[in-house]
Amino acid sequence: MTTTTGGARNFKVVLLGDGCVGKTSLLLRYIEDKFNEKHLTTLQATFLNKRLNINGNRVNLSIWDTAGQEKFHALGPIYYRNSNGAILVYDITDEDSFRKVKNWVKELKKMLGSDINLVIAGNKIDLEHERTVSLEEAESYAKLVGAKHYYTSAKLNQGVEELFLDLTREMLERQEHNTQTEVNRTSQVVVVDDEVPVQSTCCSGHRSS
Amino acid sequence: MDGTYDEIVSENPFFLELKNEYANLFQHCLSESWIICVPRIGSLTSRVFTVEDFCAHLLVPSDELPETHFNTLTEKQVTVMNKVITVEVSKGLPLQSHILFEETFYTEDFMKYKVWCIESPLEPTKTTDDAVVSKEYLSGINDCIDLLWTQAAGRQVLDNIEQNVETFLKKHSNLPVAIGPLRDTVSELYTQCLQVTLQNRRLRDKSKSCKQVLENIKLSVESYMQHLLFDSIFKSICTSCAYEDAHLNKKIRNMCDIQLRDLDIKKDLYHTVPKAKQILSKIDTYNTVLEKLVCLKQALNSINKIDSSNNVVLLTADDLLPVFVFLVIKSGLPNWFSQLTYMKEFRFSSAGKCDGDESAFLITTLEAVIGHIQSGALTGPPDPEAYYYYESNLTEENLSCKQRKSSLTESISTSDTYNKEENLEYIFELIKANQCEQVQTILQKNQKHLQNLQNNEDNVLKISLDDLSNDEDDDSDLEIYHKLCHPLCNCKKCKCKISKNLLKTCPTMTSRDSHGLTALHVASIHGKATIVETLLEMGSEINATDLNECSALHYASSRGHQNVLLLLLHSGANINQKNIDKNTPLHLAVNNGHLHCVKAIIYFAEHSGRKININCANESGNTPLHLASKWGYEGIARLLIEHGSEPSLQNSYHKTAFDYAHNLRILQVLKSCTPNLFEYIHITSSEVKKISCESEKPTSLKLQNLTLKCSDTNDALKTIENLKLIERILRAISYGDVKLACFYMNIDYSAFIAPDKEKRNSLCHPLCECQYCKRKTESCTDFDVNVCDSNGFTALHYAARYGLDEFCNILIFNRANVNCRNKKAQTPLHLAAINNKTVVIRLLLDNGANINAIDVARNTPLHDASETGNIGAAKILLSYNPDITLLNATEKTALAVAKDKVHLTIIDLIDNYANKYANT
C-alpha cells in the first residue's frame, strides 16, 4: 500500500463528499495555495501531488478528488481502495451533506476497517451565519468514529493546511506503528498495549494486533 | 510516464551547507517564508559555496504579485511561469531553469518553508554541461527506443530484447488465455529483458548514478517489449475478457443515442467533447501501456473550459467523470474492458510502486467509468427526443391522482381551456405509463371527432344536429353544442366556441410528433405490448416510419422488446424494412445484442416462410454478422452462422467479419461456419461431379450425395444450402429436439402423435396397406431423409446414437435406410450398440437392420457391444441370432473382444448363446 521510494513515503488520500461541498476548492487551496483558480499549471484538479518533509520524513501525497454526485456513489470502492487516508468533506450549511459523510464513514469502516485514517472537514465556515450542522453534533460524531474534525474555509484559507498536515502526521504514525508491530510479530512478541489512541472507539475488533 | 525527478533535498550539499553553516540566514529565511532554490545534485560543480551563492538562490516574493514575481537577495528580478524560473541578467540573455519539484518542509516547531529543486544554478558562471537525463519524459514508443539506443550507444540492447521476445513467442505458441498465468509468463519475460538490458555497462552505470534513469530504463524496456509482443498477448486478453466486453458493448449499444445533456454535462464543456473523443478513440491504435496512458491523459487534458475572460478554468471530478463516461460510450471501441485489463495488469515497471501515482489514477478513472456504465445506472435516454422537455415523472400512482384531478376539472370547467387530452405528448406519456384503456378511449374519441369534421366540413351546424340526434355518447363534441345559447345560435360567443372546436388539434393514431413518431412507435419503444395490440386493432399503419425511416419494428428490435416484436411480425410488419442507414430490424437487434430478438426474427422468418436476407448489408456494408463479430456477441454470431450468415463478406471498408473479431472465441465461432462447407464454396460444381465420378468407395458418400442433390450441376450454392440444412437437422437431433428436426425435414410431426401411441408404434405388419398405415405413408415427406453430413452420418445415425426411438420410428416410416453407412461404414445399429440404446437396437432390428453388418474395422454391432461392455445391447443383439464366429480386422470374435476387456457378464452371455446355438 505504502512504499518508500528514495526515502519518501507515498500516501494516497481520497477526498470524499457530496457534490458542491467544496472538495476541489480545498484541494486547490492546499496544493497551489490559491483560491483564485488562475495561474494554474494543471488543467484538472482531479489528481494532484504534493511533496512534504515533516521533520525529515519525506512524504509524497497523492490526492485524488472524486465525483460527488449521488449517481457515482457506487464507484467509491474503486477510488478509495488502497488509500491511506480519506478526507470527508461536508458543507456546514447543508445538513444533507453531513449525512452523506456519515454514510461514507460507515462504508469506509466496513470496507477498509482501521487501515485508513479519516478526517472530517466542515467546509465553508465563511458562511457561519447560514450554519445548519451544529458544532457539537459534528464534533461528537467525529469523536465517536475516531476521526479528527476540522473547520475549514477554502475561501479564507482557514484550517486547510492543518487538515492535510495532521492527516499526514497521523498516516506517518500509523505506518510506523504498523511496521513496528510487524517487526514484533516476526519476532513473535505480541504487543497489546501499544495502540494508537485516536481510533480506539470504533471497530476495535479489527485492530487486535 | 510521470518520470518526475526526485532527490533527497535534505542531503543535497548546497542545502546542507546553507542549513548548517549559515544558520542565521536560514532561520531568517524561514521566518520570512522566503523560497529556497536548491540546484539538483548533479548540477553543482564545486562543493564550495559563498554567501553570494546562497543569496542568489533565496527568493523574496514581490509585494504586488507574490505568486509569480520574486527578487533574489542579490537584487535580481525573477519571474516564474509554467515551472520555469527566469532570472534577469544585466548582460545577455536571461537565465532560465526548470523547477523540478517543490517540497514543503515543516520543522519540529511547525515552521513551514518551501524548497524548489531546480535544474541548474541561478548564476551564469556556475552552469555545467553535465548531460541532463533526469527530466526525460517518456511519452511514446519512440522515446523509449531513443532512450535505449542513445544511452546504450548502440542497437545492441534493442536487439537483445527482440531476441528474447522471439524465443518467448516460439516457446509459447499457445499463450494462456487466463489473465493470471498470462501476466505471470509475460512478467517473467520482462524480468529477462531487463536483466539483458542492464548487462549493458553504460546503462548500468547511468542507472546507478540516478534512480530516475533506472525508472526510465525500466519503462522503456517494458514498452519496447510490449510493442513487440502486443499482437500476440492482446488477443489472449480479449479472449479472456470476451464476456465482459460483450456485456459492456450491449450496454453501450443500447444507449448509443445518449446525449450530452442526459449525463448532466455542463454546457460550457460541450465544445471540447469532439476533440477529446477523437483523441480517446485512438487508444486502440497504441500498443504499449505507456502510450495508452498518455492517450488517456491527453484526452482528459483536452477537456477544459474557458471562462468569459478567456482563462482556463479548472475542471473538477464532478464535471470530468460524466464527460468521460460520454466519451467512452461514443468512442465506438469494441473492447474497452480488454484495454482496461491490459493497462491494469501489464504495467510491470511500476509494480511494487505505490498505486497512488498518476497512471494509477488514470486507470482508476477509466475503471470507474466502465464500472459506471456496466452497473446499468445509466439507462440511456428513456424517451424519444420529442418529449424530452416534457419531462415529468408520471408514474402509475400519480397518474391516477392526475386522472382524478383532470376528471374533476373537466366536470367543473368548461372546455374553453385547452384540454390535456389534446396533447400528443400526453398520449405518449399515457402509453409510457401503460394506460391502455385511456389511450384507447382518447384516440377513439379523437378519431370520431376528426371523422365528423371531415364529413361535414361545410356545415358545422349540421354536425351539431347530427350529433344531437345520433351520437348521444360523444361527449366532447356534444358538449360544445350544449353550451351554445341555442343550437342554431349565431352570436359572437357561440361562434367563437364553435371555431375553437374546429381548431382543436386532437391527436389520432396517425398524428406524429416533431420526429415523425406515431403512437405505435412510442408504444414499441417502451415495449407496451397491450397498447401495440390495441393500436393495431384500431388500424394503426404498421409500417409507418419516422424521420429516420424507422418503423415500429425497428424500435422494438433495437430496444429488445421481444413480445412487441413478435406481435408486429405476426400482424404483418415488413421484416426487411430498411431505415435511413439501411439497417433492417435484424441489424438493430444484433447491434444492441438482443439475442432473444434475433432469435425471434430468424425463427419467425423461417416459420412464416418470409424471406429474410441474413447477409443484408447496411449503409456501410455491414451485415448483421459484422456487427455481432465486432461487438463480440458470441451467441448471436453462432445463431447467424447457423442460419447461413457468410463471414467472408466484405463491408465498404473491405473488412470481413473475421477482421472485426477481436477475440479468439468469436473467431472460433466464425470459423466453425462448418469448415467443410467453406471448402465447398470454392469448389465449382463441375469439380464436385468429377470427384464423385472417380470415386466409388463408400467414403465418397458425401460427394455422391452432393451430386445427387444438385443433379442439374448448376449452383454449388444450393448444395451448400442443403449441407447447412443437414447440419442443422443433425444438431437438432443431437439436442433431442425431435419437433425441430421434423420441421426441418418437412415431416408432419403431429401426424405421428396419434391419440394411441401403441397403435402407431406397431404397424399391422411391415408391408401393411390398411387405412391407418396408408395415411401414415401418405404423410411421408418429399424430403430425402437419407441425406448425410460430411462424415456420412444420416439423421437415423444420429437418432440411433442419441437413442431417440420415437424419432427413429418417424424416420423409418419416412423411408429411412436402416442399413445406411457412414464414412466408417457404420450402420445406425453400430452406433446404437456402442451407445447402449436398447430400445433403438430392437427397433432397428425389427425394421430389417442387418445384424451382422461390418464397419471399416470389420466389427459387427456385437463386437462393439462387447468392446464397450454394454450388457443391455449385447443381450438384445444375441436374441436376434447374430453370427458370433465373425472376425474383425484384428482377427477376433466378439467373445475374444469381451475377454480382452474382461466384461464377465458379456462373456457369460455369449457363452450361453454359443452353447444354445451348438445344441440346436
TrEMBL record, chain A:
Belongs to the small GTPase superfamily. Rab family. It holds the Pfam family Ras. GO terms for molecular function: GTP binding; GTPase activity. It comes from the Eukaryota. It comes from Bombyx mandarina (Wild silk moth). This is Ras-related protein Rab-21. GO terms for cellular component: endomembrane system. Its main location: membrane. The keyword Coiled coil does not apply. It is a lipid-anchor. It is found in: Endomembrane system. SMART domains: RAB, RAN, RAS, RHO. The lineage of its organism: Eukaryota, Metazoa, Ecdysozoa, Arthropoda, Hexapoda. Keywords: GTP-binding, Lipoprotein, Membrane, Nucleotide-binding, Prenylation, Protein transport, Transport. PROSITE patterns: RAB (PS51419), RAS (PS51421), RHO (PS51420).
From TrEMBL, chain B:
InterPro entries: Ankyrin_rpt, Ankyrin_rpt-contain_sf, UPF0507/Ank_repeat_27, VPS9, VPS9_dom_sf. It comes from the Eukaryota. The keyword Metal-binding does not apply. Residues 242-382 form the VPS9 domain. ANK repeats lie at residues 515-547, 548-580, 581-602, 620-652, 791-823, 824-856, 857-889. Keywords: ANK repeat. One of its GO terms (cellular component) is late endosome. The keyword RNA-binding does not apply. GO terms for biological process: early endosome to late endosome transport; neuron projection morphogenesis. GO terms for molecular function: guanyl-nucleotide exchange factor activity; SNARE binding. It holds the Pfam family VPS9. This is Ankyrin repeat domain-containing protein 27-like. The lineage of its organism: Eukaryota, Metazoa, Ecdysozoa, Arthropoda, Hexapoda.
